[in-house]
Write a structure and sequence with these properties.
Blueprint lengths: L5 H9 L9 E5 L5 H10 L3 E6 L2 H10 L5 E5 L10 E7 L8 H11 E11 L6 H14 L7 H10 L3 E6 L14 H11 L1 E6 L6
Helix pairs in contact: 4-6
Length: 205
């Protein structure tokens, strides 16, 4: 699963307009910690913290950390003791969150002034391929209703963030036997999978 997402992680990091070296990084929905390990090894972050409700995945993340300056917690929400992050990331996490404003408020409080939260979101109401997937799996996985992108933006703006959005510059997209609809898959990654940038304004004065 870790290598499977690397091409998206690389596109997400390339969109960041500042150096990550020496920064404190938060990974929301970190799974087995592969993204933070990548940032340690290739971008030389000072410290990374990741949380995820899947306890087994967090156990793997801790086991795979080695000497890297990484901390992981099995939690469904941002641990209250965590804060002062320069930057936060999430990859396909927002669609799982029923209360967007509560999520936005918690991340706002965890960032330093001027810090940004980069959130990749392809599962949303304007994404036909993912709307189809959501209809098939919502009951089984107990998913909240699909979010409208404008509602996502408004929820973070209401929390005090400056909101911006971009498409990801992906390049080649891996095509597996389980996803043979090539044109739809390319359209999803190049047109429908968006990157939000939520920035906490810098301190005044």
């Amino acid at each position: 699963m870790q290598d499977e997402h690397r091409f998206v992680w690389e596109a997400m990091v390339k969109a960041v307009d500042f150096e990550l070296a020496g920064r404190r990084v938060l990974d929301i929905g970190c799974n087995r910690g592969g993204f933070l390990r990548m940032l340690c090894d290739s971008r030389h972050i000072a410290e990374g913290c990741g949380y995820d409700p899947a306890a087994a995945a967090i156990a793997d993340a801790r086991r795979l950390t080695g000497p890297r300056p990484l901390v992981f917690d099995a939690a469904g929400n941002l641990p209250l003791r965590w804060g002062l992050f320069d930057v936060a990331f999430s990859h396909e996490v927002i669609y799982l969150i029923p209360d967007l404003r509560a999520h936005a408020d918690s991340v706002y409080g965890a960032l330093v002034p001027g810090g940004s939260y980069y959130a990749v979101m392809g599962v949303h109401a304007a994404s036909p391929l993912m709307a189809e997937w959501h209809r098939e799996h919502a009951a089984e996985l107990k998913l909240p209703p699909l979010h409208d992108l404008d509602v996502v933006a408004a929820s973070f703006a209401a929390a005090g963030f400056e909101v911006a959005a971009s498409r990801l510059h992906i390049g080649f997209v891996p095509i597996s036997a389980q996803a043979p609809r090539v044109l739809e898959w390319l359209d999803y990654y190049n047109e429908k999978k968006l990157l939000f940038q939520f920035t906490r304004p810098s301190a005044v004065g």
